[in-house]
Design a protein that fits this description.
The protein is 47% helix and 15% strand. By secondary structure, it is an alpha/beta fold. It has one domain: Rossmann fold. The chain has a 6-stranded parallel beta sheet with strand order 1-6-5-2-3-4, sandwiched between helices. Helix 1 crosses helix 5. The longest helix is centred in the first third of the chain and has 33 residues. The radius of gyration is 19 Å and the shape is globular.
Length: 214
Amino acid sequence: MKKRLKRIFKISLYLAIFGLFFIVVSNRLVERKTRNSLFNETETIPKNKVGLLLGTSKYLRDGSINLYYKYRIEAAVRLFKVGKIEFILISGDNGTKKYDEPTTIKNDLIAKGIPSERIYLDYAGFRTLDSVVRSKVIFGQDSITIISQPFHNERAIYIAKRKGIQAVGYNAKDVNVYYGLKTKAREKLARSKMILDIVFGKKPKFLGEKIEIK
């Protein structure tokens, strides 16, 4: 019995070490491959026809505004108004009738002066991989500007590169360390999962008919 327990402990320890190693390697790989594709200033970022705005919830559980949401909206508006994108493709979760990220974001963009005819909605952006792949397969974009926080842009750009999409990222303002601690921790794991998804050819949850952005 003791030998069996010792064997189980060793196997668990080896798996934990390998898992930690894989997380570290995955994160370093993503950072290295996307280092030159992130931009903080509108003056230096290349122009693209479409900006892919990655969705998130507008409100936190306590009813306050989600700062990730607020800063992404501001970044998309800024990029559009200086002419570095012509259209905004909003990709987010619309899993239920009561939860509709793309429409909520669209309404806030219009309120800030973005013409409705310049906004396209992707209701099936359940994951970052889905959002990026669908921007090419459904919306026909081989070159895009991804709009989100830096850590999220890195993962999205890595996916884009692996899927044959020329992508740059415009960094929305990030949140402070304490506000985003849980999100940053989850991101480390999300990158490892993303690597596995790409290796094993994970597909978007939904595809569908093509939509021309014009």
